[in-house]
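Researcher: Please predict.
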Amino acid sequence: MAVSRTDRSSKRFNLISTILLLLCICSKAELSSKECEDLGFTGLALCSDCNSLAEYVKDQELLSDCRKCCTEDSDDSTSKIIYSGAVLEVCMRKLVFYPEVVSFIEDEKEKFPSVKVQYAFNAPPKLIMLDDAGQHKETIRIDNWKREHILEFLREKLKPTSAV
């Protein structure tokens, strides 16, 4: 039985389409840090966190965005990054909604001389981590953090001379 030219072209087209589809699925398109921040993800999200999220959330688009914004898990990933200072940025009008952040500012902030509080209109609470030159290196949203989490994070991530 002879195979027609149309059948071969159709099979070739199907094969090429399948290969292109697999390439699109397998490639991990990463988003910029600004795009990730706008989606609610920070550079500190590990890819294992996305796997944990997948156990509870079935929204494939959200999981895909998480994977585009995550950092691969490793011993050298985020655990060893140390910053020279930080800016705690928050909207003064929204502080009433973040009692844990208020508690940190009022009771604990003086323990961290390299942390400055900056009020910005309509800004969600976030820590802007700074390098030795005072340049912005990373932004971490802290909307749902407890005071203890803020303290622990700053103790781990700020240079020892900065924290008491």
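Model: Residues 20-28 have pLDDT under 50 and may be disordered.
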